[in-house]
UniProtKB/TrEMBL annotation:
Secretion signal, residue range per the UniProt entry: none
Organism encoding this protein: Actinomycetospora chibensis
Enzyme class: transferase
SUPFAM superfamilies referenced in this protein's UniProt entry, alphabetically: S-adenosyl-L-methionine-dependent methyltransferases
Lineage: Bacteria, Bacillati, Actinomycetota, Actinomycetes, Pseudonocardiales
EC numbers for this chain: 2.1.1.-
Gene Ontology biological process: methylation
Pfam families assigned to the protein according to its UniProt record, in alphabetical order: Methyltransf_11
Residue span(s) of domain Methyltransferase type: 39-128
Descriptive protein name: Class I SAM-dependent methyltransferase
Length: 245
C-alpha cells in the first residue's frame, strides 16, 4: 500500500464528502453502545462523525492526518474536536475512549502499530469497529463500472473479497472478531455515480487527462448499460467488530 495512495484523498476532499456513501445507520448501531465516547479514526471529511450525530452520538473526537480532509470535517461539524494524527500515533491519552471506529481506512494502516496504538487509547472492554461502505461489487454493472476506474484494485478489495474475515495482528489484545454486512439502495444522479469513481485512490493518483478519460467513459457506460438517470445504486457497509481484552 503506497503512502501516495493512502494520502491521495485530500485532493478531492469536497467531492469525496459529497459523493462517497455514509455508513449504514444499522452498522453504527451494531458497533456503538449507547453513551459511548467514540474516536472516529482516519475520519476524513467526517462522514462517520456526521452519521454518528444523526444517531444521537455526540461524544466524538476525530483524528485525521490530511489537512484538506480535516478542514471539510471541521467546516461541516464545527462542534467536533478534530485532531491531526495517524492510526500509528493517536494524539489521545491511554484508555480515554469506549469505541474506536475506522471507516474505509484499516487497509491503509500499518496494522501492527495501529492495533497497539488503538489498544492503548481504548479502555479494556472497549470496541474496535472497522467499516467499509461502497457500491456493491456483487452487482454486475457496479463491478464493470469499477473496472473502468481500476477501483476493483483499490486497497480494500482483497478484504471485501474475503468477506471481511479480518484477523488482528498476533499478540494484539483483541478478542476474536465478527463481521456483518448491511445493504441498502439509493437513487443517485448518473453524473454523481460517474464522479464517485474519481474519489477512489486508483483514479486520484492518475494524471489529470486520464482522470477525465475515466469520467467520460464512466458516464458513457452508465448511459449505455444502466440507462436511467438517476441510477438506483446498491450500497453495502461491511462491518467488523472486536473487543479489547
Ligand atoms: C477512504 S478515506 C476514509 C475517510 C472516512 N473514514 C470515511 O469513511 O469517509 C481514508 C482516510 O484515511 C486517512 N489515512 C490514510 N492513512 C492513514 C493513517 N495511517 N492513519 C490515519 N488516517 C489515515 C486518509 O487521509 C483518508 O482521509
Amino acid at each position: 500500500m503506497t503512502t501516495e495512495r493512502a494520502r491521495s484523498f485530500g485532493a478531492a476532499a469536497d467531492d469525496y464528502d459529497r459523493l462517497r456513501p455514509a455508513p449504514a445507520a444499522e452498522a453504527l448501531r451494531w458497533l456503538v453502545p449507547p453513551e459511548s465516547r467514540v474516536l472516529d479514526l482516519a475520519a476524513g471529511t467526517g462522514l462517520v462523525t456526521r452519521a454518528l450525530a444523526a444517531e444521537g452520538v455526540h461524544d466524538v473526537v476525530a483524528v485525521e492526518p490530511d489537512d484538506a480532509m480535516r478542514a471539510v470535517l471541521t467546516a461541516r461539524s464545527p462542534g467536533v474536536r478534530a485532531l491531526s494524527g495517524t492510526a500509528e500515533e493517536i494524539p489521545l491519552p491511554d484508555g480515554s475512549v469506549d469505541v474506536v471506529l475506522a471507516a474505509s481506512a484499516w487497509h491503509w494502516f500499518d496494522a501492527e502499530r495501529a492495533a497497539t496504538e488503538i489498544a492503548r487509547v481504548l479502555r479494556p472492554g472497549g470496541v474496535l469497529g472497522l467499516m467499509w461502505s461502497y457500491s456493491d461489487p456483487d452487482t454486475d454493472w457496479v463491478a464493470d463500472l469499477r473496472r473502468i476506474g481500476r477501483a476493483e484494485a483499490q486497497g480494500s478489495a482483497s478484504l471485501v473479497r474475503s468477506g471481511l474475515s479480518l484477523e488482528m495482528p498476533a499478540g494484539a489484545p483483541f478478542a476474536e472478531g465478527e463481521s456483518r454486512v448491511f445493504q441498502r439502495s439509493a437513487w443517485v444522479a448518473a453524473q454523481d455515480v460517474a464522479a464517485m469513481l474519481g474519489t477512489y485512490s486508483s483514479v486520484l493518483t492518475l494524471p489529470a487527462a486520464e482522470r477525465r478519460d475515466v469520467h467520460r467513459r464512466a458516464r458513457a457506460f452508465l448511459t449505455e448499460r444502466v440507462g436511467t438517470d438517476p441510477v438506483l445504486v446498491p450500497f453495502v457497509t461491511g462491518a467488523f467488530r472486536t473487543v479489547r481484552s
